[in-house]
Amino acid sequence: MIHKSVDSAKSGGSCPSQGGGQDMAARQQQEDVAIKNSLSKIKHKIFVLSGKGGVGKSSVSANLAACLSKKGYKTGLMDVDVHGPSIAQMLGLKDLLEISENQLLIPKEINGNLKVVSVQALMQDKDQAIIWRGPAKTGMIKQFVSSVEWGELDFLIIDAPPGTGDEPLTVVQTIPEALGIVVTTPQEVALADIRKSISFCKTVHLKTLGIVENMAGFKCPHCNEPIDLFSSGGGEKTAKAQGLEFLGSLPFDTRVVTSGDAGVPMMFEDNGSDFTKAFDKIVENILKQL
Ligand SMILES: Nc1ncnc2c1ncn2[C@@H]1O[C@H](COP(=O)(O)OP(=O)(O)O)[C@@H](O)[C@H]1O
Ligand SMILES: [Mg+2]
User: Fold this and answer.
1) Distance of alpha carbon 141 from alpha carbon 139, whole angstroms
2) Is the dihedral of CA 123, 125, 127, 130 positive or negative?
3) Closest CA to 145 of 37, 57, 64
4) pLDDT tens digit string along 11-52?
5) Which domains does the chain have, with CATH numbers?
6) Ligand 1 atom 13, closest CA
7) Would you say residue 168 has pLDDT above 70?
8) Ligand 1 atom nearest to CA at 61
């Protein structure tokens, strides 16, 4: 059962000194084969990352998945943010995921083309904090990747926690062919962390599709005057300085918050807003590069 397996990841698996060494090696080999099989049916894997929390990784992941699936691409969305899984809320995943006959997790299907799984769907108590050390998280993410019945996909979007630690590193090691998208907000405090993310990508040889600048500018709903809430232009400047593609800028829009909280990403709607137009351009830029 998947729940039992997650418990074993929590405890770091069985200990070789207790005679489980061969068992563990065999299990890991099985897991590696399962991961390879599952990933071989997925054309493009896109890893959305950032050195900073709260910049919009999950919102960009959810909307990117929604937009691609709306365009007719078979899309998967996987949330491996053990400490702050937002995708379940943003896509309206309310129940624990079902398990197939082969003991694999069945993703939730939305609007025909989108399949979603979140680590949160494995947790019985959604409000309980997960307090795990690196090896437990690494084991859990690897196992999660190997335990989902994705089938054939055009895109898999992976949303991970912020930073350059165990979780992003495990994603890169488990899915080495993934392409990164770095999300930032325009102010220097965020950009300082983003430069670390870019250095992380270079160090671990994660090819990067480019930088998305989020929450760049807000139009006052009363007078339509633009307000730079978090400064402006920092994402593009950083992309240039680091020799990366600038994929585009997304404005601040309160509907991103309400639609995320309601479980229906804004890109599922066709509301003609500046946000959806800007997002469409970003997706065009991504598709051009692929
Ligand atoms: N462009 C945007 N306009 C308005 N709110 C946004 C925008 N992007 C993200 N948010 C909101 O900011 C908060 C943090 O975003 P989230 O995607 O959870 O960030 P992260 O995954 O990087 O921690 C959420 O409440 C989300 O709805
Ligand atoms: Mg998040």
Assistant:
1) 6
2) negative
3) 37
4) 433 333 445 677 888 888 888 898 898 899 999 999 999 998
5) 2-289 (3.40.50.300)
6) 54
7) yes
8) 17
- Ligand 1 pocket check for 215: Cβ under 6 Å: yes
Q: How far is the CA of 16 from the centre of ligand 1 (A)?
A: 43
252 Cβ below 6 A of ligand 1: yes
Q: Give residue 88's pLDDT.
A: 93
The 10s digit of each residue's pLDDT in 213-262 is 999 999 888 998 988 888 889 999 999 999 999 999 999 999 999 999 99
Measured CA to CA in angstroms, residue 215 lies from 49, 139, 185, 230 at distances of 16, 34, 6, 7
Q: Which residues keep their CB under 5 angstroms from ion ligand 2?
A: 57-58, 86
Q: What is the dihedral of CA 138, 143, 146, 147, to 10 degrees?
A: -150
* Full DSSP string of 133-152: -HHHHHHHHHHHHHTB---S
DSSP H helical ranges for 96-211: 134-146, 166-174, 188-203
DSSP state of 114: E
Mutate which of 252, 257, 273 to test ligand 1's pocket (most atoms within 8 Å of Cβ)? 257
